[in-house]
Amino acid sequence: MPDEPSLPPPSDGLEACEARIGYAFQNRSLLQAAVTHASGAQHRLASNERLEFLGDSILGFVVCDRLYREFPGSLEGDLTRIKSAVVSRETCSRISRQLGLIDFLIVGKGMSIHRPVPNSVLSDMFESLVAAIYLDGGIEPARVFLERWVGPEIEKVISGKEGSNHKSLLQQLAQGTFGVAPTYEVLDEVGPDHSKEFQIRAQIGHRRYPPAWGRNKKEAEQAAARNALEALREEGVELVLPVAPRSRPGL
User: Fold this and answer.
1) How many domains does the chain have?
2) Of the N and C termini of the chain, which has fewer Cβ atoms inside 10 Å?
3) Ranges of residues in the chain whose predicted pLDDT is under 50
4) Are residue 37 and residue 133 in the same domain, yes or no?
5) 3-class DSSP state for residue 88?
6) Which segments within 57-114 are labelled E, that is strand?
7) Which CATH number characterizes residue 226's domain?
8) What radius of gyration do the chain's Cα atoms show?
9) Which residue out of 90, 124, 127, 230 is catalytically annotated?
10) Residue 1 maps to a domain
Protein backbone atom coordinates (compact mmCIF):
# COMPACT_ATOMS: atom_id res chain seq x y z
CA MET A 1 0.00 0.00 0.00
CA PRO A 2 1.25 3.55 -0.70
CA ASP A 3 2.33 5.68 2.20
CA GLU A 4 -0.41 7.78 3.74
CA PRO A 5 0.36 11.46 3.27
CA SER A 6 1.16 13.42 6.39
CA LEU A 7 -1.10 16.26 7.46
CA PRO A 8 -0.43 19.75 6.09
CA PRO A 9 1.55 21.96 8.45
CA PRO A 10 -0.43 24.34 10.65
CA SER A 11 -0.45 27.99 9.62
CA ASP A 12 1.97 28.86 12.41
CA GLY A 13 4.38 26.30 10.91
CA LEU A 14 4.27 28.12 7.59
CA GLU A 15 4.76 31.41 9.44
CA ALA A 16 7.86 29.96 11.08
CA CYS A 17 9.13 28.91 7.67
CA GLU A 18 8.54 32.42 6.33
CA ALA A 19 10.47 33.86 9.26
CA ARG A 20 13.31 31.41 8.63
CA ILE A 21 13.67 32.33 4.95
CA GLY A 22 12.95 36.04 5.37
CA TYR A 23 10.02 36.21 2.95
CA ALA A 24 6.27 36.54 3.65
CA PHE A 25 4.05 34.90 1.03
CA GLN A 26 0.92 36.46 -0.35
CA ASN A 27 -0.18 32.98 -1.44
CA ARG A 28 0.83 30.47 1.20
CA SER A 29 -0.34 27.54 -0.87
CA LEU A 30 2.84 28.04 -2.91
CA LEU A 31 4.93 27.72 0.22
CA GLN A 32 3.05 24.62 1.32
CA ALA A 33 3.63 23.01 -2.07
CA ALA A 34 7.33 23.92 -1.93
CA VAL A 35 7.83 22.03 1.34
CA THR A 36 5.76 18.98 0.32
CA HIS A 37 7.60 15.92 -0.96
CA ALA A 38 5.73 13.67 -3.40
CA SER A 39 5.41 11.00 -0.68
CA GLY A 40 3.50 13.44 1.54
CA ALA A 41 1.12 14.87 -1.09
CA GLN A 42 -2.46 13.83 -1.82
CA HIS A 43 -1.37 13.63 -5.47
CA ARG A 44 1.90 14.40 -7.23
CA LEU A 45 0.66 17.69 -8.67
CA ALA A 46 0.30 18.91 -5.08
CA SER A 47 3.98 18.16 -4.35
CA ASN A 48 7.05 20.29 -5.02
CA GLU A 49 8.09 18.40 -8.17
CA ARG A 50 6.84 21.01 -10.64
CA LEU A 51 8.22 23.85 -8.51
CA GLU A 52 11.63 22.15 -8.41
CA PHE A 53 11.63 22.01 -12.22
CA LEU A 54 11.04 25.77 -12.41
CA GLY A 55 13.30 26.66 -9.49
CA ASP A 56 16.28 24.91 -11.06
CA SER A 57 16.05 27.23 -14.07
CA ILE A 58 15.53 30.36 -11.97
CA LEU A 59 18.55 29.52 -9.85
CA GLY A 60 20.65 28.96 -12.96
CA PHE A 61 19.45 32.21 -14.54
CA VAL A 62 20.13 34.37 -11.48
CA VAL A 63 23.61 32.89 -10.99
CA CYS A 64 24.50 33.21 -14.70
CA ASP A 65 23.19 36.77 -14.82
CA ARG A 66 25.35 37.79 -11.87
CA LEU A 67 28.45 36.08 -13.22
CA TYR A 68 27.98 37.58 -16.68
CA ARG A 69 27.66 41.10 -15.28
CA GLU A 70 30.29 40.83 -12.55
CA PHE A 71 33.06 39.23 -14.63
CA PRO A 72 33.00 40.76 -18.12
CA GLY A 73 36.55 39.59 -18.83
CA SER A 74 35.95 35.91 -18.05
CA LEU A 75 35.61 33.23 -20.69
CA GLU A 76 32.57 30.99 -21.00
CA GLY A 77 34.46 27.99 -19.60
CA ASP A 78 35.44 29.87 -16.44
CA LEU A 79 31.88 31.09 -15.88
CA THR A 80 30.53 27.58 -16.47
CA ARG A 81 32.92 26.11 -13.90
CA ILE A 82 31.73 28.55 -11.24
CA LYS A 83 28.07 28.13 -12.13
CA SER A 84 28.28 24.32 -12.10
CA ALA A 85 29.72 24.30 -8.59
CA VAL A 86 27.25 26.88 -7.27
CA VAL A 87 24.03 25.29 -8.59
CA SER A 88 25.03 21.71 -7.77
CA ARG A 89 22.87 19.40 -5.68
CA GLU A 90 25.62 19.43 -3.08
CA THR A 91 25.44 23.22 -2.68
CA CYS A 92 21.63 23.41 -2.68
CA SER A 93 21.30 20.67 -0.06
CA ARG A 94 23.91 22.35 2.12
CA ILE A 95 21.97 25.64 2.00
CA SER A 96 18.79 23.75 2.89
CA ARG A 97 20.53 22.41 5.97
CA GLN A 98 21.82 25.87 6.89
CA LEU A 99 18.27 27.21 6.63
CA GLY A 100 16.89 24.29 8.60
CA LEU A 101 14.29 23.60 5.92
CA ILE A 102 14.05 20.00 7.08
CA ASP A 103 11.99 21.32 10.01
CA PHE A 104 9.18 22.11 7.55
CA LEU A 105 9.48 19.18 5.13
CA ILE A 106 6.24 17.24 4.60
CA VAL A 107 6.82 13.58 3.74
CA GLY A 108 4.80 10.39 3.83
CA LYS A 109 4.96 8.27 6.96
CA GLY A 110 7.00 5.58 5.25
CA MET A 111 9.73 7.98 4.21
CA SER A 112 9.85 9.81 7.54
CA ILE A 113 11.60 6.89 9.20
CA HIS A 114 14.57 7.16 6.85
CA ARG A 115 17.19 9.50 8.30
CA PRO A 116 19.18 11.39 7.33
CA VAL A 117 17.04 12.92 4.60
CA PRO A 118 18.78 12.40 1.21
CA ASN A 119 20.62 15.38 -0.23
CA SER A 120 18.45 15.15 -3.36
CA VAL A 121 15.30 15.82 -1.30
CA LEU A 122 16.86 18.82 0.43
CA SER A 123 18.22 20.16 -2.86
CA ASP A 124 14.82 19.84 -4.54
CA MET A 125 13.20 21.59 -1.58
CA PHE A 126 15.53 24.58 -1.89
CA GLU A 127 14.92 24.91 -5.63
CA SER A 128 11.17 24.56 -5.07
CA LEU A 129 11.30 27.38 -2.55
CA VAL A 130 13.08 29.60 -5.09
CA ALA A 131 10.29 28.94 -7.59
CA ALA A 132 7.57 29.57 -5.00
CA ILE A 133 9.08 32.95 -4.11
CA TYR A 134 9.33 33.81 -7.82
CA LEU A 135 5.72 32.87 -8.53
CA ASP A 136 4.50 34.75 -5.47
CA GLY A 137 6.50 37.97 -5.79
CA GLY A 138 8.44 37.98 -9.06
CA ILE A 139 12.09 37.78 -9.95
CA GLU A 140 13.38 40.48 -7.58
CA PRO A 141 12.36 38.75 -4.31
CA ALA A 142 13.81 35.52 -5.72
CA ARG A 143 17.02 37.33 -6.61
CA VAL A 144 17.28 38.87 -3.14
CA PHE A 145 16.77 35.48 -1.52
CA LEU A 146 19.39 33.85 -3.74
CA GLU A 147 21.85 36.69 -3.25
CA ARG A 148 21.63 36.17 0.49
CA TRP A 149 22.13 32.41 0.44
CA VAL A 150 23.85 31.59 -2.86
CA GLY A 151 25.99 34.73 -3.08
CA PRO A 152 28.43 33.45 -0.42
CA GLU A 153 28.73 30.17 -2.33
CA ILE A 154 29.82 32.09 -5.43
CA GLU A 155 32.48 33.85 -3.39
CA LYS A 156 33.75 30.52 -2.04
CA VAL A 157 34.17 29.10 -5.53
CA ILE A 158 35.83 32.26 -6.86
CA SER A 159 38.27 32.33 -3.95
CA GLY A 160 39.26 28.73 -4.67
CA LYS A 161 37.91 27.38 -1.39
CA GLU A 162 35.31 25.21 -3.03
CA GLY A 163 34.36 23.63 -6.31
CA SER A 164 37.67 24.23 -8.08
CA ASN A 165 39.18 20.73 -8.00
CA HIS A 166 36.87 17.86 -7.19
CA LYS A 167 39.41 15.32 -8.46
CA SER A 168 42.01 16.51 -5.97
CA LEU A 169 39.55 16.39 -3.09
CA LEU A 170 38.30 12.91 -4.08
CA GLN A 171 41.89 11.66 -4.27
CA GLN A 172 42.66 12.98 -0.79
CA LEU A 173 39.49 11.47 0.63
CA ALA A 174 39.87 8.10 -1.12
CA GLN A 175 43.46 7.62 -0.03
CA GLY A 176 42.77 8.82 3.51
CA THR A 177 39.56 6.84 4.02
CA PHE A 178 39.90 3.77 1.78
CA GLY A 179 43.67 3.59 1.26
CA VAL A 180 43.41 3.60 -2.55
CA ALA A 181 43.39 6.27 -5.25
CA PRO A 182 40.27 6.74 -7.38
CA THR A 183 40.28 5.65 -11.01
CA TYR A 184 38.26 6.98 -13.93
CA GLU A 185 36.66 4.93 -16.71
CA VAL A 186 35.43 6.26 -20.04
CA LEU A 187 31.97 4.76 -20.60
CA ASP A 188 30.95 6.53 -23.78
CA GLU A 189 31.96 9.26 -26.22
CA VAL A 190 29.92 11.08 -28.84
CA GLY A 191 30.47 13.69 -31.51
CA PRO A 192 33.06 14.33 -34.22
CA ASP A 193 36.78 14.17 -33.44
CA HIS A 194 37.11 17.95 -33.16
CA SER A 195 34.19 18.25 -30.74
CA LYS A 196 33.81 15.05 -28.73
CA GLU A 197 31.95 14.73 -25.45
CA PHE A 198 32.87 12.03 -22.94
CA GLN A 199 30.97 10.11 -20.29
CA ILE A 200 33.24 9.07 -17.42
CA ARG A 201 32.69 7.23 -14.13
CA ALA A 202 34.78 7.48 -10.97
CA GLN A 203 35.59 4.32 -9.03
CA ILE A 204 37.24 3.71 -5.65
CA GLY A 205 38.22 0.08 -5.34
CA HIS A 206 35.07 -1.84 -6.21
CA ARG A 207 32.82 1.14 -5.43
CA ARG A 208 31.41 2.76 -8.57
CA TYR A 209 29.72 6.17 -8.66
CA PRO A 210 27.28 7.91 -11.04
CA PRO A 211 28.93 8.89 -14.34
CA ALA A 212 29.03 12.39 -15.82
CA TRP A 213 29.42 14.00 -19.23
CA GLY A 214 31.98 16.64 -20.21
CA ARG A 215 33.16 18.46 -23.30
CA ASN A 216 36.57 16.86 -22.80
CA LYS A 217 38.01 14.14 -20.57
CA LYS A 218 39.28 16.59 -17.98
CA GLU A 219 35.89 18.24 -17.56
CA ALA A 220 34.10 14.88 -17.45
CA GLU A 221 36.50 13.55 -14.81
CA GLN A 222 35.92 16.63 -12.64
CA ALA A 223 32.16 16.15 -12.95
CA ALA A 224 32.47 12.42 -12.19
CA ALA A 225 34.56 13.21 -9.12
CA ARG A 226 31.88 15.68 -7.98
CA ASN A 227 29.21 12.97 -8.37
CA ALA A 228 31.35 10.60 -6.30
CA LEU A 229 31.79 13.21 -3.56
CA GLU A 230 28.03 13.81 -3.43
CA ALA A 231 27.39 10.05 -3.18
CA LEU A 232 29.96 9.69 -0.41
CA ARG A 233 28.43 12.58 1.51
CA GLU A 234 24.99 10.96 1.26
CA GLU A 235 26.58 7.80 2.69
CA GLY A 236 27.75 9.84 5.67
CA VAL A 237 31.45 10.01 4.79
CA GLU A 238 32.90 13.22 6.21
CA LEU A 239 34.22 15.49 3.45
CA VAL A 240 36.70 18.17 4.46
CA LEU A 241 37.35 20.82 1.84
CA PRO A 242 40.95 22.01 1.57
CA VAL A 243 41.47 25.73 2.04
CA ALA A 244 43.23 27.24 -0.96
CA PRO A 245 44.99 30.62 -1.07
CA ARG A 246 42.58 33.49 -1.67
CA SER A 247 42.72 34.19 -5.38
CA ARG A 248 40.43 34.44 -8.38
CA PRO A 249 41.46 31.46 -10.52
CA GLY A 250 40.70 31.84 -14.18
CA LEU A 251 39.21 35.32 -13.77
Assistant:
1) 2
2) N
3) 1-11, 113-114, 161, 163, 240-251
4) yes
5) coil
6) none
7) 3.30.160.20
8) 19
9) 127
10) no
